[in-house]
Write a structure and sequence with these properties.
Helix content is 29%, strand content 22%. By secondary structure, the protein is α+β, with helices and mostly antiparallel strands. The protein binds 6-O-phosphono-alpha-D-fructofuranose.
């Protein structure tokens, strides 16, 4: 049941029983992410005003300069999740290893784990371009009441029970799925409430936008080069428009509304691409598929990949179903031609 302008709180209550084996914990989990998003949004919106922008002077497990806002967002989301006594473990782009949450009660019955990129696109922070938070939620597979294990995090994307993103743009939105479609909520910062502004979001089957960092063109495999040239040819509804923000959440959010394809393929510089499978590709893929789009590594469904490492990377093609299938045709045709 979807009513436009419903608040997120009303929506969660009204749709809670629609979620299988719902014991209210998942709803509380979404609420804690909602709280973390409001806190981070407040800081993102004043980033230019206080000394919170700029390198934190350390590098994260990715070897990337950690912006203070990365660290801040990571701490805030971890804090809200731990305080709510809902999850038994957290994995984050900003943490080398996963975090075991013992829970305050002696028998920790918490059954969910969260994987997240607390602030994706962080290189855009100090140039005032939109950034995002991405989260992915699984039921643990190890025994409830015992410390969470790596296997709880190394699950294929097709086992996700929920996933979503927050986009800190011209307005701040929370977009998420629990497996029954995708809904978008816009924050009214004056009231601190989220309103259902984009009910039942659907990815157009076709589109005219392609999003890829063409600066890497010479390093791409043949299939990608051939698809880019296909997008640029004068034929039918082509040439398409190139739009690339350099913030995956923003690029995919725009493409979901207008139609389009986002690609971060492998290259001779990055043999598995740049994006992280567990907390970037899989949650975005869950949302894209739930909205009727498609998400692959160029050859196979991204959510069927069996992860081996917490921070492993994967090539990523996602968006309008017909556009992704066309790109996959080129990838297949030129499969062995790097
Ligand atoms: P490049 C941001 O750092 C990010 O992880 C994604 O949000 C974005 O799509 C990509 O990297 C941009 O990478 O190599 O094109 O600058």
């Amino acid at each position: 049941m979807v009513k436009k302008n419903q608040t997120l709180g009303e929506f969660i209550i009204e749709n809670q029983e629609a979620f299988p084996y719902s014991s209210g914990e998942l709803s509380r989990l979404i609420r804690s992410i909602r709280l973390g998003a409001k806190v981070v949004n407040h800081e993102v919106n004043k980033a230019g005003l206080v000394d919170i922008v700029g390198n934190y002077g350390e590098t994260n497990v990715q070897g990337e300069d950690q912006q203070k806002l990365d660290v801040y967002a990571n701490e805030k989301f971890i804090q809200t999740l731990i305080n709510r006594e809902i999850v038994c473990g957290i994995a984050s782009e900003e943490n080398d290893d996963f975090i075991i949450i013992p829970g305050k009660k002696k028998d920790n019955r918490n059954k969910y784990v969260v994987l997240m990129d607390p602030l994706d696109g962080s290189s855009n922070i100090d140039v005032n371009v939109s950034v995002g938070t991405i989260f992915s939620i699984y039921r643990r597979v190890s025994e409830i009441g015992t410390p969470v294990t790596k296997e709880d995090f190394l699950q294929p994307g097709n086992k996700q029970v929920a996933a979503g993103y927050i986009i800190y743009g011209t307005s701040t939105m929370l977009v998420y799925t629990t497996g029954s479609g995708v809904n978008g909520f816009t924050l009214n910062p004056a009231l601190g409430s989220w309103y259902l502004s984009h009910p039942d979001m659907r990815f157009p089957e076709d589109g005219r936008i392609y999003s890829i960092n063409e600066g890497n063109y010479v390093h791409f495999p043949q299939g990608v080069k051939k698809y880019i040239k296909y997008c640029q040819e004068e034929e039918g509804d082509r040439p398409y428009t190139s739009r690339y923000i350099g913030s995956m959440v923003s690029d995919i959010h725009r493409n979901m509304i207008k139609g389009g394809i986002f690609m971060y393929p492998k290259s001779s510089k990055a043999h598995k691409g740049k994006l992280r499978l567990l907390y970037e590709c899989n949650p975005m893929a869950f949302i894209v598929e739930q909205a009727g789009g498609k998400a692959s590594d160029g050859y196979k469904r991204i959510m069927d990949i069996e992860p081996e490492e917490l921070h492993e990377r994967a090539p990523f093609f996602c968006g309008s179903k017909n556009m992704v299938e066309k790109a996959e045709e080129f990838m297949e045709k030129y499969r062995d031609k790097e």
